[in-house]
Design goal:
The protein is α+β, with helices and mostly antiparallel strands and 358 residues long. The chain contains 14 helices and 8 strands. Among the domains are: 68 residues, no CATH class; 113 residues, Reverse transcriptase/Diguanylate cyclase domain (Alpha-Beta Plaits), CATH 3.30.70.270. The strands form 2 sheets. It has a 5-stranded mixed β-sheet with strand order 4-6-7-5-8, with helices on both faces. Helix 8 packs parallel to helix 10. The protein is flat and about 85 Å long.
């Protein structure tokens, strides 16, 4: 019933074709009399609308095989206002005026269209349409802001875009803004956090553009004037100086290349191990808080079991990469210890190991 009303209100002037309603509302039902079912739904919807203190009337009109919301009751739609702003921005000939119009449209966009209707064909189509309009407005405004070096405005826009449309790499725009503002420490912090979230949640590694931004951040970093103070910054705090060294994926790659060189030159063994958490047959999927707690617990267990000369990196939501500088016999023994330790901490979770020489 709610879906019926949403389809009507989306475009009261154009209405909805009867065939589209039938396909959307009854596609998964084996009904003998679809017309009767649709009429019953229409009657029930009208009765429900009467309870909202609306003016008397039928509310929903039928003409030429289409259903329309009555013109007697005007409808104010945020989707219509958003589209109108996007059209106005596109029609602007003055670049600065066009940027202001695009910014207005961007901040009008509240997020995904009907996020609870992702299984609906019509809602998915409309959601994609609004996402594309939002994307075009952000890119258009960002292009002008970067050209005019208005990095504070760009930073605010990027933050808004990342909030209403997560996991679409809008964080790169904020990193660019911070680089433009010469705030290398903040840019570095955001880069690391973005790289971690995309890797852990989506198993996505930094692309070419992210790597270019990383290089720009490094060029902004001030050169150390006091080598001793720089050395002290590199020294681990005592609370972290136990077990394996935990680092980001970028850092893990660099350490692996260094150890690979040293292993060839000095002849000591080195192995790369992938640890994958697996659920038991009776394991039920936990909520986000439970998953976060589990990851932290497993990470602490892995870190404490590995040696101080080993390196650990989280590779995905349920995967870890470890660099081991032991021989094969010790690696096998370590895997047994890790599996036993995990079974004692959480018997519902198992761990699978894949190991290869570095």
């Amino acid at each position: 019933m709610l879906c019926f009303l949403q389809m009507l209100l989306l475009d009261p002037e154009q209405g909805v074709a009867r065939g589209q309603l039938v396909e959307e509302l009854f596609y998964d039902r084996n009904l003998r009399n679809v017309t009767h079912s649709l009429n019953v739904l229409l009657y029930n919807l009208r009765q429900r609308l009467k309870a909202f203190d609306l003016p008397d009337g039928d509310y929903i009109e039928q003409r030429d095989g289409r259903y329309y919301w009555t013109e007697k009751i005007p409808v104010i739609r945020d989707t219509e206002a958003f589209e109108r702003l996007c059209r106005a921005a596109k029609a602007c000939e003055d670049p600065e005026e066009g940027c202001r119009a695009r910014l207005t449209a961007c901040y009008q966009y509240p997020g995904e269209f009907l996020p609870m209707r992702t299984d609906s064909l019509w809602a998915s189509h409309e959601a994609r349409h609004y996402r594309e309009l939002f994307h075009d407005c952000v890119i258009g405004a960002a292009t002008f802001l970067k050209k005019e070096k208005k990095f504070d405005t760009l930073k605010a826009l990027a933050k808004h875009a990342a909030q209403v449309q997560p996991f679409c790499h809008w964080e790169t725009l904020e990193i660019e803004a911070l680089i433009g503002l010469k705030r290398s420490a903040e840019a570095d912090l955001l880069y690391r956090e973005t790289e971690r979230v995309y890797r852990e949640e989506l198993s996505v590694l930094p692309g070419r553009h992210m790597i270019e931004l990383r290089n720009q951040i490094e060029l902004l970093r001030p050169a150390p004037t006091d080598l001793d103070s720089f050395r002290k910054k590199l020294t681990e705090k005592p609370v972290f100086a136990y077990g394996a060294l935990i680092c980001s994926y970028d850092g893990f790659e660099s350490i692996c290349r260094m150890v690979q060189r040293a292993s060839k030159a000095e002849g000591f063994p080195a192995f790369l191990m992938l640890c994958t958490l697996t659920e038991s047959g009776e394991q039920t999927r936990e909520n986000d808080a439970g998953q976060q707690w589990l990851r932290e617990e497993v990470e602490m267990m892995l870190r404490s079991c590995l040696r101080a000369t080993d390196v650990l990196c989280r590779y995905g939501s349920r995967q870890y990469l470890a660099l081991l500088t032991e021989d094969e016999k010790e690696c096998t023994k370590l895997q047994t210890q890790l599996r036993t330790a995990l079974a004692e901490r959480n018997p519902r979770i198992d761990i699978r190991f894949d190991r290869q020489p570095l």
